[in-house]
Amino acid sequence: MANEEDDPIIQEIDVFLARSLLEKLYLFQYPIRPASMTYDDVTHLSAKIKPKQQKVELEMAIDTLNPNYCRSKGEQIALNVDGTCTDETSTYSSKLMDKQTFCSSQAASNVSRYAAAVYKKGELHLTPLHGILQLRPSFTYLDKADAKHREREAANEGGDSSQDEAEDDVKQITVRFSRPETEQARQRRVQSYEFLQKRQAEEHWVHLHYYGLKDSRSEHERQYLFSQGHGLAENTELIKSPSEYLMMLMPPSVEEENDKPMAPSNVLSMAQLRTLPLADQIKILMKNVKVMPFANLLSLLGPGADATAVLRCVQQVALLVQGNWVVKSDVLYPKDTSSPHSGVPAEVLCRGRDFVMWKFTQDRWVVRKEVAAVTKLCPEDVKDFLEHMSVARINKGWEFMLPYDEDFVKKHPDIVQRQQMLWMGIQAKLEKVYNLLKEHLTPKKQEAQSAHPLLVSGEQRVNMAKAKVKQNYGQLEKELQKQKAEMKAHDTSARTDVPNIRIKEEPVSVEEPMDTSAHEGLNNGLVNGLHTAQGSMDPVNGHLPGGCIDRVAQELKAFVSSTFKKQFVLTLSELKRLFNLHLASLPPGHTLFSGISDKMLQDMVLDTGCKQILVPFPPQTAASPDELKVYALWEAGDTYDQHRQVLLEIFSKNYRVRRNVIQNQLSQECGEDLNKQEVDRVLKVSFCSLW
């Protein structure tokens, strides 16, 4: 309120919208000229326009008598352009540069928010602009001078070769037939710069008559900048709310909206997500996250979410596993879909994934080979199931990724009981489909019903080891006394031998408990043939000492970078073979012996600027899954980067391509004609490891 009192309204001005020059009014922006020469003094010799392109060309006279004009320079330019002879085609008939041409370019693609305003007698009249054009000097006369110079040189050379024209009567003519143009090639040609320039040049100029500032016709046209009628019927556009009025003057820019990056179809912001119904929100979240505690789901839905409604909706798209919600298989694999790896229909995939989920309701650990043996699915599909809800532990198997949610189980016993009934039905169906033996299922079922899976911390393991050592201490003491009795005659040697007998104890560390979940992302896969017995760091518990993680990542990144700079395209199988050879050359105890999983190796390949090329291999191929994964260095910084990227795009569409197709595609995309030898060299440099 204080600010409004300090800034009172001095005057109210009526605003009118003039429509007489609508879609006819342009704003010209002239370049800066000397202070001694204003545009009022300039004579416009001619003007022409291309209406479709909104391109204007003005020819203005230059004041050669102005003291700022350099006469010798003007004469030199006229001589260079027209030469010594003067005729009708001469640009400067006065042998002096006495005129200059200005060409326009669009200053803004969207001018709907701009208007020309005229203030008169307490009224403000606005006329929307149809275009804003910037005028810049055109130097086409220099091109004309170069063309005449080349013509004179050609004429001089032509006189010397006139005697040989009689001998060149018979000439060999090469006839070429153009191939039919494909739709893709036609679209590229239409969007090319050369085609657009040709289209613009084909539009004819429309010559205009220029009227000066003080001309009576200009004065007459200037009156159209004022609104012709002040009644309400003539200005209904301005009888609107302030927000609508501002929207009329400054509409949203179409260009700015188009320039906004489009998000992927499977990505939804939280703001957009909360505009959907509650059931759709939960389905999208569970489909993306796959495994989630109920507390996390409530926090993502916002503080206003009703817990009862969320529980009712989440049971439609997820199942309860160890107190956490896991998305249902039919949500991830809808009907009429198939596996991207093996082509197996969605119904078979849902049964296999349900079996994995059911196994996790019985135990925290699942063995991949056991799942593959029961479901008869390919290893890649089984790995996808396990990665949805578990984490790989070296030498142990796959562990469920979230801890047992005891709070949810205690708060919602009715939900837990209902989910147990659902799992009993799923178990009966799985027993029938996979012919599971009931004696193999009963013990695990009893364990699952008696108590939730037991989690043993690192400190508890150490205490258990110490207790075991104390139990064995008595037996070791008896053996020691027996040795003392046998060595009574040799007291001196006995005294020296007794201290050599030591009782092995497990290391006790209160500060660093042996928690296997500390660095679960580092060993999330199978080991690539490592010398685990030689290393100084023990990876059995699935993690490394904290200070070694960065060193391992740096060493692995250095290996991947140097390998792909030598061989630009590699399969995962070949990369693992080279990595094992690299390990064999390292000294014992090196940091890379700590255990590198397949997933860590693949993630490091993607982090170093490489891309995975999805080559469409045939379904009946005998290659292993690691041989079907192809990675390529996208930008190596050499002269073959563009050629290599074109080749990778070709092989991402077909695994087998003819050489002539590759040659034609390289010529079209790179803009140069490559012969057979050059194509072979590009293929050899880019795919030396695969050829």
TrEMBL record:
Q: Name one GO biological process term.
A: tRNA transcription by RNA polymerase III
* UniProt keyword annotation of Coiled coil present: yes
- Report the superkingdom from the record: Eukaryota
UniProt keywords (A-Z) are:
Coiled coil
InterPro entries according to UniProt: RNA_pol_III_Rpc5, RPC5_C
Parts forming coiled coils: 466-493
Residue ranges for the region (Disordered) are 146-169
Compositional bias of kind Basic and acidic residues: 146-155
Gene for this protein? Polr3e
- Stretches assigned to the DNA-directed RNA polymerase III subunit RPC5 C-terminal domain: 444-689
Sorted alphabetically, which Pfam families does this protein's record hold? RPC5 (PF04801), RPC5_C (PF19725)
Any one GO CC term of the record: RNA polymerase III complex
**What name goes with this protein?**
RPC5 polymerase
